[in-house]
Amino acid sequence: MDWFYSFPKMNDETLRNLKKAMDEGFKAFTRSYGDVIESFFQPLQYFLIQAEKFMTTTPWPIMVLLIAGIAWLASRNWKIVAGTVITLLLIGYFDMWSDAMKTIAMIFVGTVVSVVVGIPIGIIMARSDGFQRIVNPILDVMQTMPSFVYLIPVVMLLGIGKVPGLIAVVIYAIPPMIRLTNLGIRLVDKDVLEAADAFGSSSWQRLKNVQIPLALPTIMAGINQTIMMALAMVVIASMIGVQGLGQPVLRSVNGQFFSLGLFNGLAIVGIAIIFDRVSQAYGMRLQKHQEVVHG
Hints:
Blueprint: H1 2-5, H2 12-40, H3 42-57, H4 60-75, H5 78-93, H6 97-127, H7 129-144, H8 147-158, H9 162-186, H10 190-198, H11 203-232, H12 234-237, H13 246-255, H14 258-294
């Protein structure tokens, strides 16, 4: 009756050989194509370095005014702007300004990459049921795979540094962008699409002038979720050399420094609240605008 209590499993030697073959195959792929893949991501590395340099070298009063101005343009809400300014001043006062700027640079670049890649994929999914059936399982794996697992192949391919961390952040954060873009376009009223067709709109005109504008609030919700997930990945990405607020948190865990982890963790929370409130307010403004325009 041993079979009843012990689950049938692959032979130990066969399993060991399978794992060894997979490891050796990936290592061979890394040796053969690692340099090509690394050169492919060089523009992304340049973008990230320039964004980080701008954030960290610009005088802090200018950065506070710039971020507050962006918050005002997006939200048109003085409470959100005041909260943004107070949060940034507190972060700076507790000596976390430089790390906070590096984190914001990483989130900014990761969000831009996720939007640039995610929106076209979401549009294709909305236009093709077959493509949606292929992509959905991939997104399920991306969203349920433990975060640490992303780091293994990325580090083996690209080593330690900013770009591997950014790629891990994008992989973790991009699924909501794709899913909500697809959902937003699919939820556009069919009567509106029929009216656009009746006026002789081409497929591109219908997408550009009708579907994307009406789906913008949902797409903005996707951007909001992408930002939140990117921030959640900051601490984990610090394990492979990503600078910012995540590294002090990691040091606090290793050295059991409660205050260091608390302060930097609260700074991450503050940045997350700023991004969340601003993006949500902008999405609500878009929603109201669409209701006015389309009745």
